[in-house]
Amino acid sequence: MEKGMRRDIGLLALTMTGLGSIIGSGWLFGAWKAAKVAGPGALVAWILGVIVILLIGLTYAELGSMFPQSGGMVRYAHYSHGSFVGFLSGWANWIAIVSVIPVEAEASIQYMSSWPWHWAAWAHGLYHNKTLTPPGLVLAGILVLIYFFLNYWTVKIFARSNTLITVFKFIIPTLTVIGLMVAGFHGQNFTQYGGFTPNGWSSVLTAIATSGVIFAFNGFQSPVNLAGEARNPSRNIPLAVIGSVLLACVIYLLLQTAFIGAVRGNMLTHGWAGLNLNSPFADLALSLGVNWLAIVLFLDAFVSPSGTGITYTATTARMVHGMQQNGYFPEVFGRIHPLYGVPRAAMWLNLVIAYIFMLMFRGWGELSGVISVATLISYVTYPISVIAFRRMGDAVKRPVKVRGMSIIAPIAFIFASLILYWAQWPLTGEVIVVIVIGLPIYFYYMAKGGWQDIGRHLRSGIWLIGYFLWMALISFLGSKQFGGSNVIPYGVDMVVVAISALLFYVWGVRSAFAKPNFRDGDANTAQSE
User: Fold this and answer.
1) If both were cysteines, with which of 44, 59, 172, 200 could 386 make a disulfide (CB 3.0 to 4.6 Å apart)?
2) Distance (Å, rounded) from C-alpha 25 to C-alpha 317?
3) Per the omega criterion (within 30 degrees of 0), is the bond before 426 cis?
4) Tens digit of each residue's pLDDT (9 = 90 or more) over 262-298
5) DSSP state of 62
6) Which segments of 131-186 are extended strands (E)?
7) Of residues 70, 77, 104, the one with CA closest to residue 91
8) CB distance 495 to 34 below 8 Å
9) Is the distance from CB of 225 to CB of 382 less than 8 angstroms?
10) Residue 160 has what pLDDT?
11) What is the DSSP letter of 132?
């Protein structure tokens, strides 16, 4: 076990951590945003998204059992392919996850700005023209600070408070589904107003990447990032990852069905794309006269996002701890408080970064797509890492060996690449640039270490740079349905992405080190637990 870390978190708390991360602001906005993009076809978007997440989740489950360390998500690629790939993967993952903290706070304030009561008229000025106003930013900042202090004192407080919040978050979506379906369910909504896919099947695919599907299910990573503090991690990590995804899948499908069916015909005069709601489920409840449900939803708009914000405050601190262990951050960020067992310096760093993101992106819709694409960029390394470790044989202990991984891993890589492409140009190119911007930090620490074995690390990472450049080019040249210049026609573009992804997958696996790139025996120690 990692020095200073305490294994206080059991299977229930781990599963609740995953479920609590998945059911955050995504459920309050995701069904509405997906319906705007894809109409009733949003149901298919959720199903396809969950399949991809499960495939990637299975690779994570095996990796998490092999290296039950805090912040493990930012360390696997480092162990399999060296520091260059490890840094790019970890940087993308950290950027994606740390930015969720302010997004959750912003979501709460956005719902708050829609309070319908006369005494709450002052709240209407918290959100205007798709952005938080200065008073709204102040309140969101206070929420982020609350997330911070709930994690600052001990991991036990985090685990207990999160489990309680997640139980509440499970109940409210269930009540929402029942309340909306009983109050008014219009079956014709699934076939009228442009049909099941009013904007074509390409919109269904785009919805997976940009409408909250990947954004919501990104929370399945949280149990893995807490592996260093988990009891019996080789058993509990895989169960927590898969269990939380499947439970959340049922909830999101029911919510999407209820949302589509509850929309009144006069709200669709301009089609699904014209469905503009500030507080989607609460607005529907008020339009149907279900006032009690609207009140519950306005309350849950604080609980659900806050539960996710609390969880991500904990897991992102472990990610910084993991990146420091890889050698990318100053030593202070790897220190664990001797009494409370949490990486406090890492928490302070994430607090500062969270406030920076809050100032840059002042609305839920502005940042959720960026987070999703950055997450996809980090996803692509893990199917490759898990197979690379298998090729290393007995050099790495493998407490959990998922059956069919030799098939699951390449399929997961191909689908992650397709979703990255479906996110549409120019978003794909913009996020890739954001990831590459972090490279000066990597080269600074390599120079500080005397450029030790730099050639080997760079050679193991050429495939990833080539992959980034290729995906940006294909996105630019791709079909107009996905924002490209239409040089490559619709249909052919996805075949090109799939085939090229398979080639990069093979290249990536073969670029791995012959032996795991452990530092100071830390991974070996973790495996011996």
Assistant:
1) 59
2) 21
3) yes
4) 998 888 888 898 888 878 898 899 888 888 999 889 8
5) H
6) 131-132
7) 77
8) no
9) no
10) 58
11) E
CA gap 464, 404 in Å, rounded? 25
Residues with Cβ within 8 Å of 68's Cβ and at least 6 positions away in sequence, in order, are: 227, 228, 230, 233, 234, 237, 526, 527, 529
Which 3 state secondary structure label does DSSP give 99? coil
Is residue 248 within 8 A of residue 216, CB to CB? The reply is: yes
Buried b (16+ CB within 10 A) or exposed e, 237-255: bbbbbbbbbebbbebbbbb
Element (H, E) at 127: strand 127-128
Decide: helix, strand or coil at residue 131.
strand
Query: DSSP per residue over 262-287, as a string?
Result: HS-GGGGTT-GGG---SSHHHHHHHH
3-state DSSP assignment of residue 329: coil
**C-alpha to C-alpha distance for 159 and 342, rounded to whole angstroms:** 12
Render the burial of 123-138: b for 16+ CB within 10 Å, e for the rest.
Answer: beebbeeeebbeebbe
pLDDT, tens only, 328-339: 677 777 677 655
Residue type, 78: H
Nearest residue to 33 (alpha-carbon basis) of 268, 150, 208: 208
Pair type for strands 127-128 and 131-132:
antiparallel
Q: What is the DSSP string of 471-502?
A: HHHHHHHS-GGGTS-SSSPTTHHHHHHHHHHH
Please check the confidence at residue 45 and state whether its pLDDT lies above 80: yes
Assess whether pLDDT exceeds 70 at residue 232.
yes
Residue type, position 111, single letter: Y
DSSP assignment of 197-246 equals STT-HHHHHHHHHHSSHHHHHGGGGHHHHBGGGBSSHHHHHHHHHHHHHH
Q: Which pair of tokens denotes residue 132?
A: 């938080």
Q: What is the pLDDT of residues 402-414, one digit of tens each?
A: 788 999 999 999 9
Whose CA is closest to 131, among 299, 278, 26, 294? 278
The answer to whether 198 and 272 are in contact (CB under 8 A) is yes
pTM over 0.85: no
The two tokens of residue 134 are 């200065």
